[in-house]
Amino acid sequence: KEQAMDEKRTASNATAGRRDMQKQAACVAGDIDAVARYWAIRKQELLADAASAFISFVEPAFLYDMPPFIEPDSFNVMFTEWMLFEYPFRNDRTPLEEYAAHPPAGAKALHLDHVRQICETQVFSRFVIHDKDTRSGMAVLEDIQTARRYDVYDPELCKRARWRSGTIGERIACVDGLWVPLANTRLYDRAAPADTALDGPGFFHPEDRVRKPEAEHASFYLRLVRDIIGIDGRYRHTATIPPDETRDRPANVGMQPQG
Question: What confidence tens digit (pLDDT) does each residue in 32-41 have?
Fold first, then answer.
């Protein structure tokens, strides 16, 4: 009887823990959405320059009528993520950092605390999927660049059966002690991690020294996007980006750069 009670208590605690993590992840998604909405209203301040910088680096193949022909929404999601989290907008601050430094009147303290934690901890990489638990939604991921391991609350990753032995490209951040996926772009590569650990998608490739020397100083995210959708992208011929490969939350700023 006591054992049954203990098991019940453990199950109840696990359910409560899952609920807390769900709530925390939803809260973080809401924080990012609020920042995205803020900049959507002010897009005239940054859109033209950001779009120009993104397109001139990536050189999307579809602008040359070449594959992959990705959905406008998927392209918009990729661009918006770079713009919010990486574009050096004002005094070298990204739009996310600028929002944290100069928040709008009436922004709540908890929300701003979350945004600042995101600014400090966010990282985009490709991660080796070591383990995932569909019940708890927790995944053990290892950054292919640094070999650092993270316990990430990522129920979406956990429930996709075919996302298992390759790598997942996504942005994560730690808020109040919990690592969660942050943005919309999630790119799964089914190749064995060992085959892409040194010169795979996102890295500075030997041919880039001639074709795109500035890529050496670009972010891993920007290089990865160029690798899969750019006209000179190493992997564009094998990349498939169906609409469901990107998780389109409302944190899509509603901007689609035109070539």
Answer: 999 999 999 9
